[in-house]
Amino acid sequence: MFRYSAFILFLFCFYSGLAAADKTDDDALLLQLDKMIEQREVYQEKVEKEITELRKMLDYVGDDKAKFDILGDLFVMYRSFKVDTALIVAEQRLQLADRLGEEYVNQGLMNLADALNKIGKHENALNVLDRVKRTGAVRKDTYFYYLYHTTYLSCYNDETEASRKRLFMRQIKAYKDTLIAISDPNTASYVTNQCGRLGLQGKWDEAIRILTGYYEHCTDTNPDKARVEYLLAELYLGKRDIQQAKHFLIRASITDIANAKKVYMSLQQLAILLFQEGDIARAYNYISCSLEDVSFGKARYRIIDIAEYLPIIKAANDSRIKADRDRVLFFLLALSVLVIALVIVFFFLRKKNHNLLKVKKSLTEQNQRLQEVTGNLTRMNEEIKESNHIKEEYIGLLFNICSEYIYKQENNRKSLLKIVNTGSMADISKMLHNQSSTTEDFKLFISKFDTIFLSIFPDFVESFNALLKEDERIQVKEGELLTPELRIYALIRLGINDNSKIANFLHYSLQTVYNYRLKMRNKAIVPGKDLAVQVQKL
Length: 538
What we know:
Layout: H1 4-13, H2 23-38, H3 40-60, H4 64-78, H5 83-97, H6 102-118, H7 122-130, H8 136-139, H9 142-158, H10 162-182, H11 188-200, H12 204-215, H13 225-238, H14 242-258, H15 266-277, H16 280-297, H17 300-422, H18 425-434, H19 438-456, H20 460-465, H21 484-493, H22 499-506, H23 510-523, H24 530-536
Helix pairs in contact: 2-14, 3-4, 4-5, 5-6, 6-7, 6-9, 7-9, 9-10, 10-11, 11-12, 11-13, 12-13, 13-14, 14-15, 15-16, 16-17, 17-18, 17-19, 21-23, 22-23
């Protein structure tokens, strides 16, 4: 075995830049280990159940030899589970051995030394071992030399004075050689001690090759499996292969947890390694678990080792938690600011949208008014077109009448000139009497006016009567187109509203036109001067 301080020295000096094993596999193993740590009470209950069964057997067994054997089984279970109870069991076994003989006493003493070493009383353990009689059986017992080896290793790790450390190291090497000499080459004792010696000589690759070959045949039920895995980690650490050392520390930790061991080093060492990798949370979890387990097992010397690194890892974990909390607070603050900003933007957009709706409503109203104006303009344009049409019709009529009148006057002038040239006054008188009167010409003009007007406004009579009371409506006689009253309001519809103009146009007296309009206003559904205005809109 290598001293604990050497493990830490290698860890700090050679961690960076070393070759990596299968990281994906290690990540999966770490997840498995995390789950097992959470459920380690299950494994503990299994061991406690087995212990309970052994104690029940002890109560029913009357033979001292059988009791001694059962106590031996209990000691094996307690030595890595509860060291203080293992010490009690060893003392019980030693008391019982006094009645069984020397060899039994030797076994009892070795158990007692084993328990004393595990609770940190290394000097007391050596004193007890010195009491063991060197019988033939003892000289062949690997357990006896293993106890000397591990006890001197514990003394070496606790010692600070250099000369005494050298003395302890000589003892460690001597007992390692003895173990190799007396052990079966096919046993874990032989292989682990041989590889340990090669490691002390710096022959890392040879030691790893031999131990790996043995490890490949280790089953989960092999009680030495965790020990082999831990030694492989130490050998890889000596070779400066941190990643492989980490891999086997993970496996050793899994094996220890599965066997409900409370006194171990694998998980503690793994925590330190992970701490150096920066996995602070997992390192703190593992070192805390190690402290809980060794405290449960009453392994005081392990508690001292853990206490050396626990404050460092705890401080780093506290800093990590604080940093995480600060990040969360910053995130919450940023989120709050974002929410506030979103609320402000929401209300801004809402207000803007409200204003847009108002603008939209205003534009809609303006559009409606524009449509109304457009409609009015359209109607006005149509009225203008209609007015222009009327004017065009009547201009044409005027030109036609004027043309006919000029043609008639020209014929009359020619006839008169002809008669004058002949000097016959009788002929002049005869021609004048034969010509049609002015009255007949006016009648013709009025007839044409009525025809043209009704062709432009075919519904004028019905529309005008709709403005009059039902019993006062005008009935046009057969053969007539317009009555004098209708003819007056026809001119008003054409835009001629002045009474004197109407009188001249129709050859009526001014009073006659006035009387007709007054008469019609009185017959109107709405009496008053509004009749002319209503007629203009027909």
